[in-house]
Amino acid sequence: MSRIIALDHGEARCGVAVSDPTGELVTPLDVIERPDSRRGLGRVANVVRERNAELVVVGLPLTLSGEEGEQAQAARAFAERLGQTVDVPIELYDERLTTRMADRSGGNDSVAAAHLLESWLMKKRASA
Question: Do 33 and 21 contact (CB within 8 A), yes or no?
Answer without folding.
Answer: no
